[in-house]
């Protein structure tokens, strides 16, 4: 295999691994901040125990999310030097801004939060986790604006043999990037909600700490329901933006081969790229695809055949990932709706089957975010910057295939070790339940000074 | 032109601040098993920098990000030419980052020993390799129009290794002084003795570094052209001697501050000597990466300057607040009674 393929594989492995931990951080930080706020407002110690319990699980994840993020920044230079040279004038800025504006805030106040229980007042302590939550979401904004630029480059001119920034505001308000940001953070909130619902369900089934876990369940079900609806709403706008700006990706997502006016939507479909057609095509909803893409049932959608084969993305991976994401997204709305209703009526305990189902459902939103990224990144191929720079022209010239193979093996081993440790610790602490003894915090924090 | 110079200065300052801040937690991380003789003492060591190490490391991310945004060509070539050493630094920092969090998650002795080894390696390896990398940057890399003509073993040349050793000793003394002022009892005493013992070695290696630099690099050219610039290395020397003076007087806080000044000015000494290069070519200076031939456009640099001028002071302000919130000495009771400590 050549260095480009291996570098792509390495970037995929490291990004997908990173993105197991990021959504938990984005969503759970907000939930924990809300729990601690309730503790500060009510003085009810149950909320303190809740904060501590979920906070511990949050921190186990957080550590890996942080360290695996550094890998991604390094790789742009290490493996994608030609890319970095060509677009660094634009792409470097959001990354540097992310570090300065968001990552500092997040990393400084996480230490403050972990160690500050006995050092600052309750309010200042709760403020520190809010700052972590805001900063990690702000961090996602700048990263996704950077990615949004790769998907739909705006505000640049080609000059001096590279892409140079011409309009910073255009880059910072790129609609593609903003839609992607909202789609991604709501998806992340769904991941965190399912995590909290599932772990709470486990403890409710065990009949332990009922009040605490019912309350957690209710919070997460509410958060999850709102978020999973929002993922869909934003996702709809996002898909329309893709149809407008990335016709090849859109055609691959829907496996549409021929340019069609008033394109229908097929509920059952499977692509056959070898013959440039679909193997199966069943249950037609007339004009639906045109309507979804352009808001008009008669609109024309470009099919894959309208583009040279060298300009098309891998169809099967893009199509299957998109369908999987869509199906899971629908399922999440349904599951969180049920969870919300039974939580509201305080009927969680009467539904042991549903509780067991929700324990098993914990990994599903993770899967949905992973396939979502496959749609985004594989669907963009063969471009690294859509329409501007090809992936095959972007890799480092001085890095050999054997070097990348070595580093790829290193990443797989190291990340494998981290994953095993993380799952072991999470399962252990999630099952163990909240601490009974809060004396070490309460003795000082009640009389805390700022 | 102006903005390229501004970003060169900022680039140097970002690295200098990174080495000053992460320097003590890397140094203390190396010393953890030697200064802390039992589990409680080892936890005391980690907890001195527990609240701040993560924020310190972001200075590295920002230095990297700033290189990317301001000097993309240098970023691209530096990271791809130094692929293997950067990969090793990365693996080490990843292990170190999780080990603080994971170490305390089980009472088992072998579990904790395992993560202590990760802390040691995760602290020692990046320290050494940062030194080796900067030594080689000072010296220049073998690069021309055809690319890079070295490998990992090329980097392990005498001057690179000497700079690596210099960094290790600098961070060790820095970390030892940090532990002296941030702990009490036996840990503090051991750390104080360590700083005293290692200072002599640091002094000898620093002198060797300054002398060898004259022969191995072109760093002195700028200084000989503008004599007033010698104020930077002279400050470094004065701070290094001041460190010894304060250690002897047992004024460890002042010694730690001297160590901060030493690391800042040593880094700036190297960076000032590099100007206008970011990475010189030691084959043909026509292929050197300079702040002028590898920078972003003036427009991007202007935007980044505005961002930096607004946000870096805010970052400094809240990081100072964090340091002052956690300025207390870590005692045995802090780790044995608190459920929050690492």
Description:
The complex is a heterodimer of chains A (450) and B (342). Chain A is mainly α. Chain A has 14 helices and 8 strands. In chain A, the strands form 4 sheets. Chain A has a two-stranded antiparallel sheet. Chain A has a two-stranded antiparallel ribbon with strand order 3-6. A two-stranded antiparallel ribbon of chain A has the order 4-5. In chain A, helix 6 crosses helix 11. Chain A is globular. Chain B has 342 residues and is mainly alpha-helical. In chain B, 78% of the residues lie in helices and 3% in strands. In chain B, the strands form 2 sheets. In chain B, strands 1-2 form a two-stranded antiparallel sheet. In chain B, helix 1 runs antiparallel to helix 2, helix 1 packs across helix 8 and helix 1 crosses helix 12. Chain B is globular and about 60 Å long. The mean pLDDT of chain B is 92. At the A-B interface, helix 2, helix 3 and helix 13 of A face helix 3, helix 4, helix 5, strand 2 and helix 13 of B.
Give the tally of β-strands of chain A.
8
Can you give the helix content of chain A as a percent range?
over 70%
**Mean of residue pLDDT values of chain B:** 92
Oligomer: heterodimer
Biggest interface, CB < 8 A: A-B, 75 and 64 residues
Structural class of chain B: mainly alpha
Please outline the major beta sheet of chain B. 2 strands, antiparallel
Low-pLDDT residue spans of chain B: none
The helix tally of chain B amounts to: 14
Distance between the termini of chain B: 48 Å
Brief sketch in words of this structure:
Chain A is mainly alpha-helical. Helix content of chain A is 71%, strand content 8%.
